[in-house]
């Protein structure tokens, strides 16, 4: 198992994140946030702030830094200070720049804001009556869709005709990504343009957004993000500090650093939507699903910029059923923006669906694994495209054996004062890939460089680049230097959607074939060591006629320092031939204290089919992190939004996330079936699937232990009090 290449610099504190960069003459910006959730800013008195010690600039909607709204693959990205509208509590409304961070912060406190307030709606429950149909999805699917058997008129008929029906409503909480590295930026302008040091999920995408916002050529923005302290979807778009630091640095002619405080991260970035989901399952007495209805509502900011597609991400594809109806509605609220967060759609969606499946198993008095296997799909319902490779049944079989599922009783067991239960759930996440370009350079010292702009937000992509590069060039990984996180490199696209290994890996395979072709052409060219011969390549060497030379020796012989080629790849014909997904089986054991109702997770196991595993260490840590996040969603995390829109727990004191004492040993196992129908490398995504299903597995274990079915997240002690 090879190690993470960036491990040593990270654990010794030598890795330089965005805000770790400093430059001569650099000054500091501090963002001012709104203290109402809805209204218009009538006035901002900045007199005291402007004359405070060290202050260089105070920007506001009345004295803005001109920024245009960028349009990207994610849609339009909001830019701060361009108007006086406030639509959530904690919205960036000002930016104070001073010689030091403390001076900027002190001056920001002196800004006096007066508002004309408007009515506020912050509760998803209260907003349900005003729900709207969600817009058409990025993949072209409408908000509501139905698949019905030929002789069936409606999903209600199919449910009515089902011998066994379970129906329930599930709710999930608003979450914040809470990445270790707060959103930040250091912006430096020179005669070539802007260089920005800011953690993000795709350097070229951030450079393009900033260029559009600043109204400059794309070529005059360079985005650097060598290390990223967690992103999870929350750094896919350019952040408020990056827009403001870039614009202020241009205005002041000084490098500007802006770092959100931890409290500011909770509102001035974007998080996960709250959801309400109604599910009805109809089955035959042998467990065969007859009908599945999944209606979902999610919170969205008032600009309707993001939809948490829970039913689309789960029920649409997960089970073989003759009759299916899903819908997605949005509820615009005066709450901080929502965006992609690890398994958007699938994470909250799987809590509802996989709880409902467990409830159906109870109603049928059937083992929940057997019920799932009985309804295993070979293709998404209503689609002809079969899964390219699906080994979910094996995940469940191996998982059941490894976890001791046979010892589970339908009513849990007791151990002294503890009620012990086991739960399971399915996990799925689509296998996708996006366009990516990689450059490979072979050097005369027999080393190679594999370079793409991209980002490694902690996933291990840097290590994966070196491994796939080495394999494609047929040399040892130690001879390959991976480069990432700089928009000056070829466009690597997004570290998001669990796509980076498949996207960059496919491009590496193409780039490697090209550079080897070019090397062989060079080797056999006139005057070269293999002039006119049939040459081949193996083991990092050029061979012909019983002779061989390493690529470095050959380059030296022809006086070339290096040879490079680029390769590009993107989703292609494969999407017309198969459906693609990663799969997994989640297992969890909980202990609930008989008297205090304290809930402890005592064992966890996830068994995953994610295609080929390139690097077991980074893959395991991705999955493990996701599973822990599932426990967090189940038992800890949830933003409490007060009626006026203020977050009651928007900091690390009040926003609970699990610590080591909350998490037992996490067992992760992979069944390895390379999926070469999806891409040449055979790897499917595993960044997001680890969290999918785990919250349901916890809730199902709690139900098994206590007999109490909790249909809301997070599950709290008071939810387990008996009447
Ligand atoms: Mo992920 S939510 O695509 O970073």
Automatic annotation (TrEMBL):
Domain (Aldehyde oxidase/xanthine dehydrogenase a/b hammerhead) ranges: 12-119
UniProt superkingdom: Bacteria
Regions annotated as coiled coil: none
GO molecular function: iron ion binding; oxidoreductase activity
Pfam families in the record: Ald_Xan_dh_C, MoCoBD_1, MoCoBD_2
Keywords: Molybdenum, Oxidoreductase
InterPro entries: Ald_Oxase/Xan_DH_a/b (IPR000674), Ald_Oxase/Xan_DH_a/b_sf (IPR036856), Ald_Oxase/xanthine_DH-like (IPR016208), AldOxase/xan_DH_MoCoBD1 (IPR008274), AldOxase/xan_DH_MoCoBD2 (IPR046867), AldOxase/xan_DH_Mopterin-bd_sf (IPR037165)
Protein name: Carbon-monoxide dehydrogenase large subunit
Organism lineage: Bacteria, Bacillati, Actinomycetota, Actinomycetes, Pseudonocardiales
